[in-house]
Amino acid sequence: MTSFSERKKEAAPLEEAFQELLKAYRLEGKFREKSLIHEWGDLVGKTIADRTQSVFIQDKKLFVKLSSGPIKREIQMNKSKILQLIEDRFGKEVVTDLVCL
Q1: For the range 79-85, what are the long-range contacts, defined as Cβ-Cβ under 8 Å and sequence gap of 24 or more?
Q2: What Pfam families does UniProt report for this protein, alphabetically (predicted)?
Q3: pLDDT tens, residue by residue, 78-94
């Protein structure tokens, strides 16, 4: 009979098991894309998040629709910084470009 502690050592941590499942079904990229969209507000902050109308990814491009012209210009000027933040947090292959709408 195996004890609880022995079983716990044999079981993979939940996050590791989840990552293996994503790999097995080839869903890693889609999961990262959805995570990026979901975490857009955390990534750019409240001011930009409040003026963001929609965020979506198509053909490795992140499209962001904004309600403020000045915020749009700010994002365009800081595009490389934002792309670097995305790369650091979600990996290099998630998006290659940022388009403001």
Answers
A1: 82/43, 82/44, 85/43
A2: DciA
A3: 999 999 999 999 888 88
| Residues 48 and 71 sit within 8 Å (Cβ to Cβ) | yes
Whether the CB-CB separation of 56 and 63 falls below 8 Å is answered with yes
- Count of residues making up the chain: 101
> CA torsion angle for 101, 80, 61, 54 (degrees, to 10)?
-40
Structure tokens at 71: 């915020």
Compute the distance between CA of residue 48 and CA of residue 73 in angstroms, rounded to an integer. 11
What letter would DSSP give residue 58?
E
- Between CA 50 and CA 71 the distance in angstroms is 10
Mean of pLDDT values over 8-28:
73
Give this prediction's pTM: 0.75
Question: Among 3.30.70, 3.30.450, 1.10.510, 3.40.50, what is the CATH number of 26-100?
Answer: 3.30.70
Strands of the chain, DSSP E: 52-58, 61-66, 97-100
